[in-house]
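Our consortium's second objective concerns turning raw sequence data into structural hypotheses that experimental partners can test. To show how far this objective has progressed, the report includes one record in full. It was chosen at random from the queue rather than selected for favorable results. The single chain below, 214 residues long, was entered without modification.
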Amino acid sequence: MKFIRLPCFVAFALAVGAGIGSMASEAGPVAAGAKDAVAGETVREAAGPSTIEVKQSSLVEPEFKEFGEIIEVPAGTPPSAENAVMKYWGGLARARFHEEIEFGVIRIKARDRELAEMERHVKSPVFLVALDCDFFLPVAPYSVAKGGKAHPDEARLKVFMVRKGSAVLLRRGVWHTLPFPVAGEGLFIEAVRDGTWKKDTVLRPFRGKETVKF
C-alpha cells in the first residue's frame, strides 16, 4: 500500500491524530500480544473449508464499544459552536500528540462478502473513514495467544454497516479486514502509527480455519 502526503488535509490530520493518540495511550491487555508482530513481514496462514454465517449489525455505540469509537455528528446533540456558515461538534476524542501518524488513501472494490482471515496491529489503533460510499466492516475482539499464536475468534466476530462520512477508530489489537463497499468501489482515508504496515501487521485465519459469510 502506498502512502502519500495530503497537504489539503492538514487540519483533518490533526483531528484524526488526536483520536489515534488517545486510543494508543489507553491501558489494556494488548502488550501481552505484542510478540505476534514480526518486523518487516505480514504473517499468513492457510484457512480451512468450513463456512459459518454472521448477521450484519448497525453501527451504534453499545455494540461497537468493545472494538473502538464511532466518530460522527452526534444525533440530537447541539453543536459546541456555530455561526452563519458552520456548525462544530467538539470533544468527540481527546489525545496527547506523541508519535508520528501515517495517512493513506485506499481505493477498494466491492467483492463477495466472505472472509477466511483477519489482521491486527497490536501497537496502533486504526482510523478509517469512507469518503464516497457506505461499507461493511468485520471486526473481532483482541485475543490472547494460544499455543504460541493468537487467532481471531469467529464466534465473537461482528460485521458493522458504516455510512459514508462516518468514521471509526479501532482499538489496538482489534482484528479487522479491509472494508467491504456496499456496491461499486469506495475511496477511504486510513491512519495508523508510523511503521505499522511494515512492523506491526499480523494476518491470521480463524481459530477453526472457518470461512465467514455475511
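The partners drew two points from this record. The two ends are 26 Å apart (CA to CA). The chain has three helices and 17 strands. Both points have been shared with the crystallography group to help prioritize constructs.
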